[in-house]
Amino acid sequence: MASTFQDTTTHLEEVTVRAYFTEQPLLRLTASAGVVSPTALGNQSGTTLLPAINTVPGVRMEERSPGSYRLSLRGSLLRSPFGVRNVKVYLDEIPLTDAGGNTYLNVLDAGSIEGIEVLKGPDGSLFGANSGGVVLIRPQGMGDETDPKASLRLNGGSFGLFHEQLSATLNPTAGYRFGFSQAYQRADGYRQNSAMKRAAFQTVQRWNYNPRGELRLIALYSDLRYLTPGGLTEAQYAEDPKLARPATPATPGALEQQAGIVNKTLIGGLVHDIHIGSRLRHVAAVFGSHTDFSNPFITNYELRNEANMGFRTYLDYRGGGSGVFSWHANVGMEGQFGKNDFANYENHGGVRGDAMAIDALRSSQHFYFVRFSADVYNRLLLETSLSLNYYGYRFRPLFPDSEPHYTRRSFDAEWMPRAALSYMLAPQWVWRASVSRGYSPPTLEEVRASDQVINTALEAETGWNYETGFRWQPGNRRIAVDGSVFYYRMEDAIIRQVLETDAEFFGNAGGVNQRGIELSASAWAIEPDQTGWLRGLQLGTNLTLSKFRFGNYRVGDDDFTGNKLTGVPGTTLVSSLLARFPGGIEAYAMHNYTSAIPLNDANTVFAGAYHLLQTKLTWNKPLGSRFIFQVFAGGDNLLNQRYSLGNDINAFGGRFFNAAAPRNFYAGMALRI
């Protein structure tokens, strides 16, 4: 699934993606997709993926506090209060999404990633269960460059921010290449009890043992620690947004309980990629992960021990000839198995107390997939695909009551079909359409949520997605436009609720109707040149319009039918400007407008709309023929907006708001070879 990443805002037709195993121009891709290129990542501070990912229409990444991320593709964050769910994420051929359906995206360092592909809408054709979409991450070291390169980057800023990142890609021999990345990041945070630290190590080792075969090792270790300040009421948020959640007569506060997360994760895998003849390719991967997770919280002290292992294998066959008729076929399977031990103890000011509840859970999922695509006269691209998905878990309570045997909960096997086409109306116009089925079973963290009750009644989300769109690139390639319209009808949507004890649980809503429009456009107002005082001017804008409504949804005597979907802004508009000047100087600015966001299912509380403005100024100075010295500085939230970038939805007691940092700045330098 590795991809060739280029600047998507420069020449759309030159951008190639390999989301479906075959390299093809983004212009002709049948799916709605967004590419976060190295250029887009380089325009940011380098300490977080959030601003770059949020430039993709239909995608929303949130940060409740430093280190605490949430990600949503075309949907709400109802299922993802503290992480990433309902989205399948891969690091090359290795799933970051575990057997239980959870993804620790925050273990990654932003500087260790070369690019990201986002496939929006349910796509189980090659990737298994999901109803939101798929994220494909390209780690450093997966490029085809033969020249060695290395960089050292140092960055610091407001609220105690410090980031150091060292990376290298070397080619010791003609058949062996490796990449290595090491990073350390810390921040004090704007709010009380919001500090974070992360040490991350990543490597990609590649052995080309013959011209047609490659064996590669991908490994990542991350030690992440961050504090969680907790949500504030509207009155507390207005009076002093820096506060951590204060104590009440019934519960202690976040500072008193030293609320936070410690996540130590090791992920690794071997991938064997071989071409058998000129038309057939086989890929096989084995992988595993281990996570030690601890979470002193307001009401308890949670420990989780998680281990996962799995495999992925597929055949890729090319047939026909170029120019008239060619076809592509894939068949394969993927399986994962997880061992999760949940334990909750009393929390005495950040010190673990007596046991409250201990459970052992085991999860397994596997799926089979087939895919066929045909290209007729390099004009009409037809695709059909199908996956058959199996999921189940079993559990055994250990404390306070112990059961000798596991209880099994198996879900029915689910088909996920997809049919799509793209047609080149003219050399610069491509129209596309698709229909696909989504399926997403509950994660183990939803089955056994913080209420410490194993919810065997929780059903999987399902639904059908209908979509059409276009891409336009004039012959001069100075302008690129990409638009989509979709309708996703979801059944049994999984919704987060909170008890009076502050513990969360999840239930199924009747249904959700998701209608949306996504549009991205970019243009070189002044094409890159080597003369003049302004040597390039690029403008871009991305618009997301979401009309997401609950269907038949009742909780007790409350009827939420027809209400706006919790956590989803109706309008998001992201605009950017990149200017290039003589002497290796670049200036970048980005504006993000986000409309009001409903914070509870009743739609009685909303987070206000906000405007974010960020800028970055970069100077690149060559030092001899091999070295480049870079100095950069930037600012975020320059309009000094008071806003909450990661709200607590359906929060008990009105504690919805997690204040983001006001106006802040950063600066740094890098040495590249």
Automatic annotation (TrEMBL):
<dbReference type="InterPro" id="IPR000531">
    <property type="entry name" value="Beta-barrel_TonB"/>
</dbReference>
<feature type="domain" description="TonB-dependent receptor-like beta-barrel">
    <location>
        <begin position="235"/>
        <end position="638"/>
    </location>
</feature>
<dbReference type="InterPro" id="IPR037066">
    <property type="entry name" value="Plug_dom_sf"/>
</dbReference>
<protein>
    <submittedName>
        <fullName>TonB-dependent receptor</fullName>
    </submittedName>
</protein>
<keyword id="KW-1134">Transmembrane beta strand</keyword>
<keyword id="KW-0798">TonB box</keyword>
<comment type="similarity">
    <text>Belongs to the TonB-dependent receptor family.</text>
</comment>
<dbReference type="Pfam" id="PF07715">
    <property type="entry name" value="Plug"/>
</dbReference>
<keyword id="KW-0998">Cell outer membrane</keyword>
<dbReference type="InterPro" id="IPR039426">
    <property type="entry name" value="TonB-dep_rcpt-like"/>
</dbReference>
<keyword id="KW-0813">Transport</keyword>
<feature type="domain" description="TonB-dependent receptor plug">
    <location>
        <begin position="28"/>
        <end position="134"/>
    </location>
</feature>
<dbReference type="InterPro" id="IPR036942">
    <property type="entry name" value="Beta-barrel_TonB_sf"/>
</dbReference>
<dbReference type="Pfam" id="PF00593">
    <property type="entry name" value="TonB_dep_Rec_b-barrel"/>
</dbReference>
<keyword id="KW-0732">Signal</keyword>
<keyword id="KW-0675">Receptor</keyword>
<keyword id="KW-0472">Membrane</keyword>
<keyword id="KW-0812">Transmembrane</keyword>
<dbReference type="InterPro" id="IPR012910">
    <property type="entry name" value="Plug_dom"/>
</dbReference>
